[in-house]
């Protein structure tokens, strides 16, 4: 199965993605996780990405697209994948379309986790305290939510028009939300 998980920062995408990917036996591909791993390893990709991440801005499409195309070409992603945090711009949607069309495959479902924006700020602040994420300070959180609303939220329309979008209420117990997602996937 090829699935995209969308939703604002703090919606719980990462948490849910781990459960769903494991249940389906497909890799969980999180661009945020890949960027953070590169930052902590001090790679040139990490050095480049960090400048944007620390400000709550998106890493440039050219960098992100190349990284995802490479990840999707790996053996484990041939049987399917759960994309978390990608695509976030129209250019990324176009690139993903290109990569998948060239491989003769397509996305089957796009799940949008919906949450009340007022509820995500405290969640993100709590996560900042637990995980020591530098991009979870109050100013940066606010900027990330703005960037999401401006650049990414409108993109759900693209997938809605293709008949792929399903909205899932992200509010509630983690296990409840997991059940809702599995149910829309027919599991
Ligand atoms: P969140 O969803 O909470 O914002 P992520 O862990 O998904 O957090 O992403 C952290 C940061 O990594 C983003 O703020 C952004 O700078 C960068 N990033 C992740 N995915 C993308 C993407 N698809 N395009 C551009 N930048 C990205």
Write the layout of secondary structure elements.
Elements: E1 2-6, H1 13-24, E2 28-30, H2 31-41, H3 44-53, H4 61-72, E3 81-84, H5 90-103, E4 109-114, H6 117-131, H7 138-152, H8 156-161, E5 165-169, H9 174-184
Parallel strand pairs: 1-3, 1-4, 2-3, 4-5
Helix pairs in contact: 1-9, 2-3, 4-5, 6-7
Bound molecules: adenosine-5'-diphosphate.
Adenosine-5'-diphosphate binds next to helix 2 and helix 3.
Provide keyphrases for this structure.
about 190 residues; alpha/beta; Rossmann fold; binds adenosine-5'-diphosphate
How is this structure best described in words?
- The structure is a single chain.
- This protein has nine helices and five strands.
- The chain has a five-stranded parallel sheet with strand order 2-3-1-4-5.
- It is 57% helix and 12% strand.
- The chain has a single domain (2-184), classed as Rossmann fold.
- It has helices at 13-24, 31-41, 44-53, 61-72, 90-103, 117-131, 138-152, 156-161, 174-184; strands at 2-6, 28-30, 81-84, 109-114, 165-169.
- The mean pLDDT is 95.
- The structure holds adenosine-5'-diphosphate (ADP).
